[in-house]
Design a protein that fits this description.
The complex is a heterotrimer.
Chain A: E1 6-13, E2 16-23, H1 28-35, E3 54-57, E4 60-63, E5 76-78, H2 80-86, H3 90-99, H4 108-120, H5 127-133, H6 145-158
Parallel strand pairs in A: 1-5
Antiparallel strand pairs in A: 1-2, 3-4, 3-5
Helix pairs in contact in A: 3-6
Chain B: H1 26-30, E1 46-52, E2 58-64, H2 66-70, E3 74-79, H3 80-86, E4 91-92, E5 105-106, E6 113-114, E7 120-126, H4 129-136, E8 140-145, E9 171-179, H5 182-188, E10 191-199, E11 202-203, E12 211-217, E13 222-227, H6 232-243, E14 250-253, H7 269-281, E15 285-288, H8 291-295, E16 300-301, E17 304-312, E18 318-328, H9 341-349, E19 358-366, H10 381-399, H11 403-410, E20 419-420, E21 426-427, H12 432-443, H13 445-456, E22 461-473, H14 481-484, E23 492-498, E24 504-508, H15 517-529, E25 536-539, H16 557-584, E26 591-594, E27 597-600, E28 606-609, H17 610-619, E29 633-638, E30 646-659, E31 664-675, H18 682-701, E32 731-736, H19 754-771, E33 780-781, H20 785-791
Parallel strand pairs in B: 1-15, 10-33, 13-14, 18-19, 24-25, 31-32
Antiparallel strand pairs in B: 1-7, 2-6, 2-8, 3-7, 4-5, 9-19, 10-17, 11-16, 12-13, 12-15, 17-18, 20-21, 22-30, 23-24, 23-29, 26-27, 27-28, 30-31
Chain C: E1 7-10, H1 14-24, E2 28-31, H2 37-42, E3 50-53, E4 63-66, E5 69-73, H3 78-83, H4 85-90, H5 92-97, H6 104-109, H7 112-118, H8 124-131, E6 135-140, E7 143-148, H9 149-152, E8 153-155, E9 158-159, E10 166-173, E11 179-186, E12 196-205, E13 208-217, E14 224-225, H10 227-233, E15 236-237, H11 240-253, H12 264-288
Parallel strand pairs in C: 1-3, 2-3
Antiparallel strand pairs in C: 4-5, 5-10, 6-7, 6-10, 8-9, 11-12, 12-13, 13-14, 13-15
Classes of the chains: A alpha+beta, B alpha+beta, C alpha+beta.
């Protein structure tokens, strides 16, 4: 890699310890997709607006395209693959499938990462609050209604409220 | 309404048609295990990036790629002239059915002249996309700026230069449709309403941008393209022809597609260039359009200025409708579907639901130095429906009747088919009246009106909008594509076969982008055969593995592809029963297939399994009589006969609140009642409508490609071009009336676009209803706060 | 769009960061939350020679209150500010503004210091800081200085911080118990940059607005302390006459930008609407206090 600045990083990705040498300008999602083959995180804009790139870093959902891979050194990163395998949102995923809360599926990983953070709060939320929480994740296919339904009913079931 | 006294296989108790089934690809989507074009990584793969014209119109002088070629990681730098030398033909975006249209020949990258800001000029290929972009910055081009044609209203002025001198002027196309005696009707009318409308240019904004990986194997001389396209067969044909390759040596695979909406049915120069690079280099080349590139290359649509005029009687009867439309194309007519389709659609569907006998529609399509335009979801319908529905609301006001009553009075009666629409097209199997009544109940319209009245007294301004529509779906060869001479299939096909295990493989020419086409085809095949859906695997999106079809566009997949699948599955059923009859020494007409097993039709007794027939047919053929040769598969193709489209109809309702101090609109709730014929999968159909509505609302509220007077795009990022997000969108109630189409046995029509077509119209009607007490009126989209405050006279 | 090449240094101490800033000046960019910097890099709108990543500098973290002054470390994430009981208790204006700041994922990384250092005209935190009379503490190899918010916001993305200075913390006097604050903004979509916005801290007795600090943002090149509007409302009974006087005075305080979001005329109109609504709210909140 002709004189392009690189750095070695060590981080945990989906529970697995990873050590790699990366170019300093590579963003986290390109690292995850191209170096680790974790293609579940997607790129829709690379300027932090669409949310398709959402990943969890040290417990919080972030825009993966706005973080350099070198900044994730020492961090714990969870992608949709890891989140899915962990079973943390199995109920949400099931509800998404049942309700058809996705079509092309491109926004879905980011949408689930964001919804997972809402569910993790363990507090009730109105439809309006759900919409507000998801307001940074663009979906072009569903029009959001089905997504809100799926998140709402999962939330209600979890906190023992009136299910749908 | 069709006569439903004879039962068809679709009415059987174990029919999957009409049942909600989860999509087959949903589970992997929620696990992040979708497979999109950018997920394809091939050995020795390199990446293309483009130097694009910063000017809307400029002559290209010298191009110096020396520094770029030396840059780290670069393997190729190619100019437009070099690419042209690899092309066997130019792209000429004309269709014979658009009489008199003119278009310039285009090459995939600009050669002597760039004609729009964003047009690709030089391609650089490097080992990473980042290094390809670095190298692009080192390309030196001598530009000579040329006069820019930026404005559609002056594009045909004598003083305005022709973008393409060989065309003489900037006129792409003109057309007039005339029926009855419009002038006499206007002279005799009690009321005449006239209004001029402006619609902003916008673009699809698929979340997954355009993407392509091309690989040319020098050993086998085979070109394999993986691309995010709705129309893999068309890409195969167009790219093979353009690059002078035998079409049968080209394979196109469309894996998971992250949103398409019609934007991905077109041919793009940068994708073709990338393919050429793969051939030249003998190694795979990947191109992913980034978001900035997408804004200046994905087709644009919907830029119109249109005057609408309606003649109405004192009692509210529409007597005539006239429209005069000015439509802005871009710098070239997009190949191969042209840039004039949308204008043509506006002429053919405006006022379509209504009975008036006098109609004149005129359109003028002009070239501008902007991004080329072409078909995008609901093509032309948002414009035509917005115009007609606004005018009919104005007519209602003048006649002193409710907007729903004027529609009740003027729609084509449900029992009046077959007939012609007011625009002269053959129509049948429609249900405007039934849809209106169903909507009134769903909305509790009377209650909303009463509440509106009482809230007005408190200074709260609610609006209720209605929008009736017709939508052309599922085009046939007698319309535009077949007659037009384009390499675009309006037929479709299914090849279905029985596997040794008893499983069914169903290969179709239509494609899925997440709306569930594969699931729906599977349901149809399962129903026609008599097997459970999980016994059927649908293959789509691979030209090597599927029969040549048109892909998915114009809401055709279920109607056309579904019919081919239905008929192919019926044929396979007959074949299976033929073999069963031979094995069981029974008359096949006494047998049936239920739940994947051959049974006695009379009493349901199990006779033989499909797995057994599969095993014998493939491995133990000696068990069959000597004169019985197993075929084990069937192929059927379907096309519409005679009619250019299968029309659908419906009505939208919207309830809004307008903040008259800020000009902000709150969309409280949205309803749709529509008739797409037989609904195969209710959940998937409803979700198509919902998603389509929100996409349409985007154009009515936010979306606008803003250009300055040198045709430079001002807002080409997602921060500046606004798309609908979750917090502002309403819940959408969807219901259906089902009038099966008589064009097919399946009876299904198209549903994918009707949400997008009418949603902008109903929102504009609702906003105008809210503003009515102020005498204010909005006739532009997107309806920004600036426009609303201006209408209210507040600024 | 892939970022251009740059040098990258992970600062291990504030001194190291200052030394780098001293050496590279305009050629360097501070990488904190990255929510504003990274888009410009990815879009190749800026091509700095060196990025100084300050995310490991513990000294810049934290939110605390002491002697009636709230300290917000430059690296305090928006999410931390939003969840902070210190902020909720002592700076309710900021607590009210936080839900308007972008979206969850952006708030998880974006920093208070980053927002104030960039001074995007439509950003919420600069306006709140100005309304609350904040002091910005910057450091360089030349020393430490405290800049009053009134003197800090100069122009479009232009602040009093020099290229070699690093913002380390913001000090804000806790809102007095007898003060009412109101935050309002207008955006086309939730989380967008504001078309018009107002951060207001007022002293209200009954229907009388004794004193109000009115900071307008979104429409202007920088957050504007509307001194003439504030003079027009001082000591006045809130009603139609006061509303008219304040609206008239705003013509002189504000100079809205015409841009993609709309015309200057529309923005002035919206700021007037917000003023009326904010002062209505201030009076109502004073009543229920």
């Amino acid at each position: 890699m002709n004189d392009e600045e690189t750095l070695q990083i060590a981080l945990t990705v989906n529970g697995e310890r990873v050590t790699r040498t990366v170019t300093v300008r590579q963003h986290l999602v390109d690292f995850l997709r191209n170096e680790l083959g974790l293609t579940g995180s997607h790129l829709g804009c690379e300027h932090g607006i669409c949310g398709a790139c959402s990943v969890r870093v040290d417990g919080a959902v972030v825009r993966g395209c706005l973080m350099l891979a070198v900044q994730a050194d020492g961090s714990e990163v969870i992608t949709i693959e890891g989140l899915s395998d962990s079973g943390e949102i199995a109920d949400l995923q099931e509800r998404f499938v049942e309700r058809n809360a996705m079509q092309c599926g491109y926004c879905t990983p980011g949408m689930l990462l964001t919804a997972a953070e809402l569910l993790a709060k363990g507090k009730p939320a109105t439809r309006e609050e759900i919409r507000t929480f998801l307001s940074g994740n663009f979906c072009r296919c569903t029009g959001y209604h089905a997504i809100v339904d799926a998140v709402e009913s999962t939330l209600n079931r979890r906190i023992g409220g009136a299910g749908r | 309404m069709s006569d439903k006294t004879t039962l068809t296989p679709l009415d059987r108790p174990n029919s999957y048609v009409g049942r909600t089934l989860s999509r087959t690809s949903a589970k992997r989507a929620v696990a992040g295990r979708g497979h999109y074009t950018d997920d394809v990584i091939l050995p020795r793969m390199v990446h293309s990036a483009f130097v694009r014209s910063p000017y809307a119109h400029a002559r290209i002088g010298s191009i110096d790629v020396a520094a770029a070629k030396r840059a780290p990681g670069v393997v190729l730098a190619m100019t437009g002239a070099e690419l042209k030398d690899m092309c066997a033909m130019s792209w000429h975006g004309v269709l014979a059915c658009f009489e008199g249209m003119k278009a310039a020949h285009q090459y995939p990258m600009a050669v002597d002249r760039a004609c729009w800001q964003g047009e690709p000029v030089v391609m650089v290929v490097a080992d990473t996309r980042a290094r390809a972009e670095d190298a692009c910055e080192l390309v030196a081009i001598e530009w000579e700026e040329l006069p820019v044609v930026a404005e559609k209203t002056t594009a045909l002025d004598p003083a305005t230069p022709a973008i393409h001198p060989e065309l003489g002027d900037n006129l792409a196309f003109r057309k007039t449709i005339e029926r009855g005696d419009v002038d006499a009707a206007f002279r005799a009318a009690d009321f005449v309403i006239e209004e001029t409308f402006e619609f902003g240019r916008h673009t699809a904004v698929t979340l997954e941008p355009r993407a392509l990986v091309a690989e040319y194997d020098r050993g086998t001389e085979r070109l394999t393209i993986t691309t995010s396209s709705q129309v893999p067969h068309m890409i195969m044909t167009v790219f093979a022809r353009t690059l002078g390759l035998p079409e049968h040596n080209v394979r196109v695979i469309a894996p998971d597609v992250g949103g398409a909406f019609g934007m991905k049915i077109h041919s793009y120069g940068d994708e073709l260039a990338t393919t050429a690079a793969a051939i030249k280099l003998g190694r795979p080349v990947k191109f992913i359009a980034d978001r900035l590139e997408s804004f200046v290359t994905d087709i644009h649509a919907r830029e119109h200025r249109i005057t609408g005029k309606m003649a109405v009687s004192r009692t509210g009867e529409i007597q005539a409708l006239e429209i005069d439309d000015l439509s802005a194309a871009g710098a070239y007519s997009q190949y191969p579907r042209t840039s004039v389709f949308e204008a043509n659609q506006v002429l053919t569907i405006t006022g379509g639901p209504y009975k008036h006998q006098n109609y004149r529609g005129r359109t003028t399509v002009v070239y501008l130095n902007k991004v080329p335009t072409s078909q995008y979801r609901a093509v032309g319908h948002p414009i035509g429906i917005s115009v007609a529905e606004h005018l009919i609301d104005r007519a209602a006001e003048l006649a002193g009747i409710d907007p729903v009553d004027i529609r009740r009075m003027n729609v084509m009666e449900d029992d009046s088919y077959p007939r012609l629409t007011s625009t002269g097209l053959k129509a049948q199997d429609m249900s405007h009246q039934a849809c209106i009544e169903k909507l009134m109940k769903a909305m509790d319209y009377g209650a909303l009106r009463a509440e509106q009245e009482s809230l007005r007294r408190k200074g709260i301004w609610r609006g209720i909008g209605l929008a009736t529509f017709i939508k052309g779906t599922a085009p046939g060869p007698h319309g535009f594509y077949g007659l037009g001479g384009a390499p675009i299939a309006s037929q479709d096909a299914c090849v279905i076969r029985l596997e040794p295990s008893g499983g069914i493989i169903c290969a179709v020419g239509v494609t899925d982008q997440g709306q569930g086409v594969d699931t729906v085809m599977g349901q149809i095949a399962a129903t026609a055969l008599g097997v459970p859906p999980d016994q059927v695997r649908v293959i789509e999106g691979d030209t090597d593995a599927t029969p040549y079809g048109g892909g998915t566009y114009a809401s055709r997949a279920t109607a056309i592809g579904g019919e081919a699948t239905y008929q192919a599955a019926r044929a396979l059923r007959s074949e299976i029963l033929r073999l069963a009859g031979a094995l069981l020494q029974a008359d096949p007409s006494t047998l049936d297939i239920v739940d994947g097993k051959v049974v006695d039709a009379a009493n349901g007794t199990f006779r033989i399994s499909l797995a057994e027939i599969g095993r014998i047919g493939h491995f133990q053929v000696a068990e069959l009589p000597d004169d019985v040769q197993p075929v084990l598969s069937a192929t059927r193709r379907f096309r519409l006969l005679e009619k250019p489209y299968i029309f659908t109809n419906g009505i939208h309702g919207a309830h809004v609140e307008v903040d008259v101090d800020t000009g902000f609109i709150r969309h409280l709730r949205h309803w749709v009642v529509e008739d797409c014929g037989r609904v195969v999968n209710p959940l998937l159909a409803d979700e198509q409508v919902r998603g389509g509505c929100v996409q349409g609302l985007g154009g009515a509220l936010y979306e606008h490609c803003v250009y300055d007077d040198t045709a430079q795009l001002q807002n080409g990022t997602l921060a500046d071009y606004l798309v609908p997000m979750a917090a502002e969108m309403p819940d959408i109630a969807v219901d259906h009336v089902q009038t099966p189409t008589q064009e097919t046995e399946l009876g299904a029509k198209g549903v994918g676009e009707s949400g997008t077509g009418a949603a902008p119209a109903v929102l504009m009607c609702a906003v105008n209803d809210a503003l009515r007490p102020f005498g204010a009126r909005v006739t532009r989209q997107p309806m920004t706060p600036e426009i609303i405050l201006t209408a209210l006279g507040k600024i | 769009m892939k970022a251009p090449r740059f040098q990258y240094v992970r600062a291990e101490s504030v001194e190291q960061a200052l030394d780098l800033l001293n050496r590279h000046g305009e050629e360097a960019r501070i990488l904190a939350g990255g929510q504003s910097l990274m888009p410009t890099l990815n879009m190749r709108l800026s091509q700095p020679a060196i990025l100084i990543d300050i995310n490991r500098l513990q000294a810049l973290r934290g939110i605390s209150v002491a002697d009636g002054t709230v300290r917000i470390g430059a690296l305090a994430r928006h999410a931390e500010v939003m969840e902070s009981p210190v902020i909720a208790r002592h700076l309710p204006l900021i607590a009210e503004a936080m839900p308007h700041v972008a979206h969850v994922a952006v708030r998880n990384r974006g920093t208070f210091g980053g927002s104030v250092a960039l001074a995007d005209p439509a950003a919420e935190m600069p306006a709140c800081a100005l309304a609350l009379g904040a002091t910005f503490v910057v450091r360089s190899t030349r020393g430490r200085r405290a800049i009053a918010a009134d003197d800090y916001f100069k122009g479009l993305y232009e602040t009093a911080r020099a290229a070699d200075e690093l913002l380390v913390e913001t000090l804000i006097p806790a809102q007095a118990a007898d003060r009412i604050s109101v935050f309002m903004e207008l955006t086309r979509r939730h989380g967008d940059f504001a078309m018009a916005g107002l951060a207001c801290v007022a002293s209200v007795s009954g229907e009388v607005v004794n004193e109000a600090r009115l900071v307008y943002f979104g429409s202007e090149v920088r957050p504007i302390l509307a001194t003439r509007a504030m003079a027009a409302i001082r000591g006045k009974k809130w009603g139609d006459a006061a509303r008219e006087a304040v609206n008239a005075a705003l013509t002189d305080d504000l100079d809205p930008m015409t841009n993609l979001q709309g015309s200057a005329a529309m923005k002035l109109h919206l700021q007037r609407v917000l003023t009326g609504r904010a002062l209505d709210a201030a009076v109502a909140r004073a009543r229920t206090r």
